[in-house]
Structures are given as C-alpha cells and as structure tokens.
Amino acid sequence: MNLSARHLCLFPSIALFAAVLSCGSTTLNAQNSDFNLELHAKKNVTASQIGLSDYPGATPVKQNDDDSNADFGFSFGKTHFRILVAKYTTTDTPDQVLAFYHKSLSHYGEVLECNNDKPVGNLTVTRSGLTCSGQEDGGQSASDNGSSDGHDLRAGSPHQFRIAAIDEFHPHSTRFELVFIELPKDNKTVEKK
What is the CA angle 90-91-95, rounded to 5? Predict the structure, then answer.
C-alpha cells in the first residue's frame, strides 16, 4: 500500500510539490499586501511532528527518494494544504500497532477503522464528518481518494485528520505509515456552517 500517493492523487498541484521536494528541504515565500504564498517541503518527519506517539521499538523506514517520508504543503491566503508522512517498521503484529495507535488517535476525537476504504464495525462516519471514503456525506466511493489496499485508523475532521495505516505487503515485519493531512476547505463547507 502506498497511502501517501493514494491521497496525493486528489491534488492537481502535486507536480509543483514534486518539483519542490526534488530540491530537498525547501521553503519558498512570496507575499505582498494582498497576496501571501508559502510552499515548503522536507523529508525528515517524525511521529511527534504528526501529533502521534512514537511506537515503542519501531524504526524509521529508509527507502528511495520516491517513497520517503515527507512534509510539504502550501498556504495561499486563507487556503492551507499540508501533508506529513512518516514510515516505520516493527516486529510486532499489525493488531498490536493498530491497538497502540487507536489510543493515540483518540486524542483527536472518534477513531474510525477502515479496511479497503470501507468502515470496519458500527462507526461509519465520525461526528465531525470523517469517513473512510473521503466523502463528507458518508457515502462509499473508492474513486474519491484513490483505491485503498490496506487497513487504517483515522481521527479528526474531513479537513484535518491523522491516519495510522498498516502496509500489509511485508510478511516478516509490520510496516506502517503515520499521516497528517490538512485539506483546503471548500465554499460549500463554509456555507453549511
């Protein structure tokens, strides 16, 4: 599973972020009295920067540059986008990792468990509107944010949430990703409130 790539397919500006990421750790700022644009990209991300606890004994996954940890985003006036990804491996089971992060994620509200973009258990949408599919109305559509091929936990709101995801394709270890996503709010959401 490549959770970070799955969520990034939503954003047409990813090409710009890829260019910024290829420069290493970069921050770009441009502003005048009525325009403020900030772009940033870094490769070193930790669980604590995402707002989650470090898993005991887990080690960071070191992979090629195309699949590394990442912190990138932009601010354009009142519009903010940010994604942080940290990848780890442990000899513990996926169930142990999910149980640990269920508690850590509960600090951000109800914890939604998802498997292949479908809810597991009775909770299908949190009080804040977060779903497994990415739709605010609780509908299920894998095409909204790419198709998922793994098991994850998530908590927060539809516009700012954290994910602990298991990469199920490593039989001799448990690899997992911790992700923080802040999405721009659309006008429809602002009007509802």
Answer: 85
Task: Output Rg (C-alpha) for the chain, integer angstroms.
Answer: 17
Q: What's the domain range around 37?
A: 3-192
Report the C-alpha gap between 119 and 113 in whole angstroms. 6
Write out pLDDT tens, residues 63-90.
Answer: 665 556 788 887 777 788 889 999 999 9
Q: Would you say residue 188 has pLDDT above 70?
A: no
Cβ-based neighbours of 189, under 8 Å, separated by 6 or more: 136, 158, 159
Closest among 85, 87, 107 to 97, alpha carbons compared: 87
Q: What is the value of pTM for the model shown?
A: 0.72
Look up residue 46 and give its amino acid: T
